[in-house]
Amino acid sequence: MNSRRIVFLLLAVTVAGATAFLARVWLQAERAAIAAQLGGARPAMPAKPTVQVLVARNVVRTGQLIKPEDLRWQAWPQGTLPATYVVEGRRQIADFVGAVARAPLQVGQPVIESDIVMPGSRGFLAAVLRPGMRAVSVPATATSAVSGFVFAGDRVDVLLTHTLNAESGSQYSATETVLRNARVIAMDQKLDFAPGDKPDIAKTATLELTAKQAEIVTLAVKMGDLSLALRSLQQLETEDGAAGEGDDATAELGNSYTHATQVSRLIKDPTPEAKAVDPPKPTIFVLRGSARTKQELDGSLADDPGAASGDTEIAKPGANQPGAKTTTSPPTLTGVLR
Q1: pTM of this structure
Q2: Is the pLDDT of residue 109 over 50?
Q3: 58 and 151 part of one domain
Q4: How far apart are CA 203 and CA 148, in angstroms?
Q5: Distance between CA atoms of residues 12 and 6, nearest Å
Q6: Which of 70, 101, 170, 293 could form a disulfide with 286 if both were Cys (CB 3.0 to 4.6 A apart)?
């Protein structure tokens, strides 16, 4: 092989290598251009700053007292944040515990102060009441309010103790259940309580009642002493055997009472049972001249004791005139013996 052929062979290899390298570079450039046209990966945009906004964790109905578990914080883009939203750092969840929802709140809905009524503000108690219900306050003492263990939200029975007059003129005491399952909406001016609060002896208890029940309780306050009997929260069935009521249940009229004679055996029953009186037996009177004989239907004879006393007289002419004496007797049959 001569030197000329070797030179041409080396030159061909060099040109082929350069062509392959240039082709590779050109293909990479074309691929990049195609990827850019098809919307390839774009550079990540910086995340917008967020803030924590107060929202509802659970569904809150109108008139419902807000509890700590009903609220939570949720991230919210800062650029679209309305000025009415509650932002973490400015307020706390505890500031809204015990408020009443003026409008219903759905899960995840931001809490706006115009949608709730804060304790102590005007219309707060009216917001607690359900439509058609009334708020009635009754006096409370340590003994009538279970030593301060009755709180807002509890259910109680209203008992009335008063003095009754018997037909004989004597007096005796009695206690009756006026209302059952009445909802307590406030004790004094407190409409809620926090865990760990010590029992406080309130002077008044405010109940949620219907219009008619409000009249009954108002009159009962004037009639005697009222007491509140606390009902169990774990009670599944009522005394009547019906299904247990929920939070929306209204009070019912009571149906039980206790006389003083049922408490103490030393107190006599002021209303003794009337003795049975035998009905009068039909009789026949037999007249023999001036004598009169009483004869029972069984055939027995007996002298009429009323004949001598003049209980029964024979009608004489002029008996119906003014001043004439008339007597009456039980219906009888009279036979005249001829």
Answers
A1: 0.52
A2: yes
A3: no
A4: 10
A5: 10
A6: 293
